[in-house]
Write a structure and sequence with these properties.
Layout lengths: L2 E5 L5 E5 L4 H10 L7 E4 L5 H13 L2 E4 L5 E4 L7 E2 L1 H4 L9 H8 L1 E5 L12 H9 L3 E5 L2 E5 L7 E3 L5 H12 L4 E5 L5 H12 L3 E3 L5 E5 L7 E4 L4 H14 L2 E5 L7 H9 L3 E5 L2 E5 L9 E3 L11 H9 L4 E5 L8 H8 L3 E5 L2 E5 L4 E2 L3 E2 L3 H12 L1 E2 L1 E5 L2 H6 L3 H7 L3 E5 L1
Parallel strand pairs: 2-15, 3-14, 6-7, 10-11, 18-19, 22-24, 23-25
Antiparallel strand pairs: 1-25, 1-26, 3-5, 4-5, 7-9, 8-9, 11-13, 12-13, 15-17, 16-17, 19-21, 20-21
Helix pairs in contact: 1-2, 1-7, 4-6, 5-6, 6-7, 8-10, 8-12, 10-12, 11-12
This protein binds ligand EPZ.
The site of ligand EPZ has 23 residues, from α1, α5, α6 and α12.
């Protein structure tokens, strides 16, 4: 397993480019299964999860062509299988996103039940309940979700909880259903909107994306087309956090400031000077130590859970006492123990972590446990005294494209060792 070795103490300055959003490209790749012609997707990030999804689409029989700019053309005209096998779903929970498209396009789907992961049990009961409401005969047996339905029917579905991939799965299924589906309490994340825009470019009739009520008028077929994925707001926020924690100044280009408002407000509360343009955000910490902030994660447009770990690292070295409450996942504080090994002062009370900022963290061998937790460990290592070894960086590679090159280009002393 490769490791990252980071020598702390450098102030990060410069520009990086945001890649396409992982959590938009995954559902959009799944949506290609709905089309009766090739779909070309642009701005695809070079991530392990994208590779896994391409492997899954290939297993189903789709033909994939990737060009040198990593544009992916998926031709779903010769799908031969409707089964997403355990060994692929085990690697990536987001494989559940092929369930709705396979069922809607081919009338049947068999998807291994995605296990939990480090951050929580991650049930998919709402995906199943919604598809059943649309007429699917759907059951869970022998670790697989097995669904059949000659043609799904539009339904009015009220989601008990705001679920991002649940909203996406049901939106994709409804696109080819007979009649209209109304999805209440839908997720409003920008990645959900990106999927809706992609489906509409393929001939779907999805209305209300970005609000909590989606109205989807089912159509008989979706054609192929082209779509460019929106920039990754979490990758963007992570590089801005690298500037904030090291007292530096970083501009992230090719990004969307409008998708990060709740996070930018917190950076300003921490003392950063934020300036934005149509497709860039600059964070200037002006050499100051951050001030501790109070955060409560919640579904979009509130503060995103995927930025929680990064702000735990920021609060760890900030001036004063901060509190971070995690309301989305039940076990998303694994990074706290690792950061404490570097000298961070945290107190965990239920789903809230109280931090008392320390002026200096010290390097220690630490281990990544999940994607965003590993990003927070890298951020802490950037200001840790000495060389920090971050182990199990395969977690990082799932969500960050070339993290050591990008941080290195900003002045970080970081290298990957096998
Ligand atoms: C998506 O996960 C993202 N993944 C996650 O990003 C992100 O943290 C999460 O949304 C919240 O924003 C992708 O988009 C691929 P949920 P998802 O369904 O859809 C409960 C990352 O770091 N729930 O919105 O799986 C669930 O347990 C990843 O990039 C049910 O109870 O999350 C959780 O408590 C991590 N039943 C809450 O809802 C269901 O059927 C929100 O989960 C579905 C969800």
């Amino acid at each position: 397993m490769s490791k990252l070795i980071i020598t702390g103490g450098e102030t990060l300055r410069g520009e990086v480019r945001a890649c396409g959003a992982k959590n938009a490209v995954l559902p959009i790749l799944a949506a290609t299964l709905l089309a009766d012609g090739p779909v070309t997707i642009g701005n695809v990030p070079h991530l392990q999860d994208v590779t896994t999804t391409m492997e899954l689409l290939g297993r189903l029989g789709a033909q994939l062509v990737v060009d040198e700019k990593l544009n992916i053309e998926v031709d779903p005209r010769c799908i031969t299988s409707h089964t997403a096998p355990y060994e692929l779903v085990r690697q990536m929970r987001a494989s559940i996103l092929v369930l709705g498209p396979l069922l809607a396009r081919f009338g049947e789907a068999e998807v291994s039940l995605p296990g939990g992961c480090a951050i929580g049990s991650r049930p998919v009961n709402l995906h199943i309940k919604g598809l059943a409401a649309m007429g699917a005969d759907i059951r869970v047996e022998e670790g697989y979700i097995r669904a059949r339905c000659p043609r799904l029917k539009g339904a009015r579905i009220v989601l008990d909880l705001v679920t991002v991939t649940g909203t996406e799965n049901l939106m994709m299924a409804a696109a080819l259903a007979q009649g209209t589906t109304i999805l209440e309490n839908a997720a409003r994340e920008p990645e959900v909107v990106d999927l809706a825009n992609c489906l509409n470019a393929m001939g779907a009739q999805v209305h209300g994306a970005g609000t909590d009520t989606l109205v989807i008028d089912g159509v008989d077929r979706l054609h192929g087309g082209q779509y460019r994925v929106l920039p990754d707001r979490i990758e963007t926020g992570t590089y801005l956090a690298a500037a904030a924690i090291t007292g530096g100044c970083v501009r992230v280009k090719d990004t969307r400031p409008d998708t990060l408002e709740a996070v930018l407000v917190k950076f300003e509360e921490a003392g950063a000077v934020i300036t934005t343009g149509p497709d860039w955000i600059e964070l200037d910490m002006q050499g100051r130590r951050p001030k501790a902030v109070h955060i409560r994660t919640a579904p979009y447009p509130a503060f995103p859970t995927d930025m929680q770990a990064q702000f735990c690292a920021l609060n760890a070295v900030a001036e004063g006492v901060g509190t971070i409450t995690e309301t989305v996942f039940e076990n998303r504080f694994m990074h706290i123990n690792e950061l404490s090994r570097m000298g961070a002062q945290f107190q965990l009370e239920g789903n809230t972590v109280i931090s008392t900022g320390v002026a200096q963290l010290t390097a220690a061998p630490i281990m990544a446990t999940d994607l965003r937790a590993s990003a927070s460990l890298v951020l802490a290592a950037l200001v840790g005294k000495g060389d920090t070894v971050v182990d199990r960086v395969y977690h990082i590679d799932r969500g960050y494209d070339c993290i050591e090159e990008k941080l290195g280009s900003l002045g970080a002393l970081i290298r990957r060792v096998p």
